[in-house]
Amino acid sequence: MLGYAHGLNTAVETLRWREGSLEMIDQRVLPDRFEYLSYTSATEVAEGIRSMVVRGAPAIGCAAAYGVALESARLIHACSEVFDAGMETGFEVLATSRPTAVNLFWALNRMQTVWDANRHRSKREIADCMLAEAHEIFSEDVRNNRALGAYGAALLSDGARVLTHCNAGALATAGHGTALGIIRSAVETGKSISVIADETRPFLQGARLTAWEMVQECIPVTLIADNMAGHLMSCGEIDAVVVGADRVAVNGDVANKIGTYMVAVLAQRHNIPFYVACPLSTIDPGMPEGAAIPIEERSAMEVTGFRECQWAAKGVQVRNPAFDITPAGLVTALITEKGIVSWPNAEKIMRLFGV
Ligand code: MRU
């Protein structure tokens, strides 16, 4: 087991900067194997995002930022034309890695702003600025998760049994997690919290990643297949639902892992609060409503089987949308680093941005 330290550090270092390269835990092979893969260019990082070595909205944003920083360092000895062209390509390849999580585009925008502001400098200075910004995006994410964790922890009563879907933990962020960050923060305040983890078909982020994170920290966790949530709610075994988000629209609609919408409908039916943990980097001020959020469609093989084992009838047609939209009306509250937004709507959300 990994040793966890309380305070700002968590033992799960989803991404880490080591001697000029980015290392990321290979989340495709957890929990069977715990190993890091090393990255030295934007193209490699984009492939790491696309293939789910790293996943989870804030972690994808951080990885993309480091991808741009790596590209600038890789091109340091190139002439200006090659440097500029390489940077443009780096941004493009990262922007097309996955479509739904807005943190990716949010982080790339920040990196673009820094590049634009420093184009007159030497390539070495530009590379230093890009790396400093990537580190800042990373540190901010941990700080924000800690802040929203504290807000969310206050909403959970001692003894709460909390259902979560997918993995919105340290593995999905720079550290601490969003939904699991709230649970961690509640536990740190002395509350006894137990977690019910949906396995999260088809990629099994709940069974493989959430369960693993909670077991590491001895936070009681019970794994269920996704189709068991309604039954447990009807038996009075769930007190709250806390999930993360990939993109929140201005009207409060939430894009999150496929199956989240089903959980939200069930929670409403059973009068169970449905909380969405989301840093402001996950809210898209340019997206008026959920219907316009691009939903990634992934490979049929994720549904017909897992890894080498394929169990579905050969020749069957398959749909594999990776995310769904939970309408704002089903969201009891958004939990952000700036506070709690109950029954979110456009006015309350824009207030978070000072508008
Ligand atoms: O396909 P994934 O694993 O990247 O999807 C992840 C989720 O849906 C998470 O709930 C979301 O990104 C929030 S992570 C803090």
Automatic annotation (TrEMBL):
Pathway given in the UniProt record: Amino-acid biosynthesis; L-methionine biosynthesis via salvage pathway; L-methionine from S-methyl-5-thio-alpha-D-ribose 1-phosphate: step 1/6
Q: What does this protein do?
A: Catalyzes the interconversion of methylthioribose-1-phosphate (MTR-1-P) into methylthioribulose-1-phosphate (MTRu-1-P). Also catalyzes the interconversion of 5-deoxyribose 1-phosphate and 5-deoxyribulose 1-phosphate. Part of a bifunctional DHAP-shunt salvage pathway for SAM by-products.
Q: What is this protein called?
A: Methylthioribose-1-phosphate isomerase
Catalytic activity from the UniProt record: 5-deoxy-alpha-D-ribose 1-phosphate = 5-deoxy-D-ribulose 1-phosphate; 5-(methylsulfanyl)-alpha-D-ribose 1-phosphate = 5-(methylsulfanyl)-D-ribulose 1-phosphate
Q: Which UniProt keywords apply?
A: Amino-acid biosynthesis, Isomerase, Methionine biosynthesis
* Binding-site residues for substrate, renumbered to this chain: R55, G56, A57, R98, Q205, N256, K257
| Superkingdom of this protein's organism | Bacteria
Q: Which Gene3D superfamilies match?
A: translation initiation factor eif-2b, domain 1, Translation initiation factor eif-2b, domain 2
Which residues does the annotation list for site: Transition state stabilizer?
A: C166
Q: Which InterPro entries match?
A: IF-2B-related, IF-M1Pi, IF_2B-like_C, Initiation_fac_2B_a/b/d, M1Pi_N, NagB/RpiA_transferase-like
Originating organism: Candidatus Nitrotoga fabula
Q: What are the protein's GO molecular function terms?
A: S-methyl-5-thioribose-1-phosphate isomerase activity
- Pfam families attached here? IF-2B
Q: Name one GO biological process term.
A: L-methionine salvage from methylthioadenosine
